Amino acid sequence: MSPVVALKSGRSRIIAAVVVAVVLTFVALTLRLFVYPDLNAPVRSNAIVVLGGFGLSSVHAGEKLAEEGYASTLVFSLEPSLSCVPSTAKVTIMCFRANPLSTRGEARAIAALARRHHWHRIIVVMPTTQATRARLRIGRCYPGQLVEVAVPPSGITEWLGGITYEWFALAKAMVWQTGC
């Protein structure tokens, strides 16, 4: 084998190894951040907050937590077209509209509600793919204990769409929007 061919095959192996390492790192980070994020078991809290825009799965999860007695206050982040439902005998229902209509806006609204109502521990319900970014965003605004309960996306399309979106949204939260 000539030295030029040996050099090319050695360089090709190094490039291939680097590409494999980058892909494996990306997959591992994706799994850790968006598929199997750090989550908490629900505990008795001052309020349950359901982040908006994610369908009935999150709403039902929040309602179930309230029915199971984890908090007597259930808070919904609503999109402009939705209206708040009335409270029940067992659960106080509250609603807010984030400004801006984003996780950052929701984090600010949650912090304001927590100050107003003296909440020291809240449960936040969101899709699994959003848990890492929601923890980051809310933690920057809310000084109390945050308990996260995640609802898995319902199908492969939601998983892939959520993961793709979250990569870009997490980068934005970590690089450009570093405050509350």
What report would you give on this structure?
The protein is an alpha/beta fold. 51% of the residues lie in helices and 16% in strands. The chain has helices at 3-35, 56-67, 103-117, 131-141, 156-175, and strands at 47-50, 73-77, 92-96, 121-127, 145-151. The chain has a 5-stranded parallel β-sheet with strand order 3-2-1-4-5, sandwiched between helices. Strand 1 (47-50), helix 2 (56-67) and strand 2 form a beta-alpha-beta unit. The mean pLDDT is 90.
Short description:
With 180 residues, the chain is of the alpha/beta class. It has helices at 3-35, 56-67, 103-117, 131-141, 156-175, and strands at 47-50, 73-77, 92-96, 121-127, 145-151. It has five helices and five strands.
What features would you highlight for this structure?
180 residues, alpha/beta, five-stranded parallel beta sheet, 5 strands, 51% helix, 16% strand
Class per helix and strand makeup: alpha/beta
Spatial separation of the terminal alpha carbons: 61 Å
Give the strand tally: 5
| Poorly predicted tracts of residues | none
* Major sheet strand order: 3-2-1-4-5
**Overall 3D geometry?**
elongated
* Portion in helices: 40-55%
Q: Report the biggest beta sheet as strand number plus sense, adding barrel if it closes.
A: 5 strands, parallel
Radius of gyration: 21 Å
Please give the count of helices: 5
Q: How much of the polypeptide forms β-strand, as a percent range?
A: 15-25%
Average pLDDT metric: 90
Order of helices and strands: HEHEEHEHEH
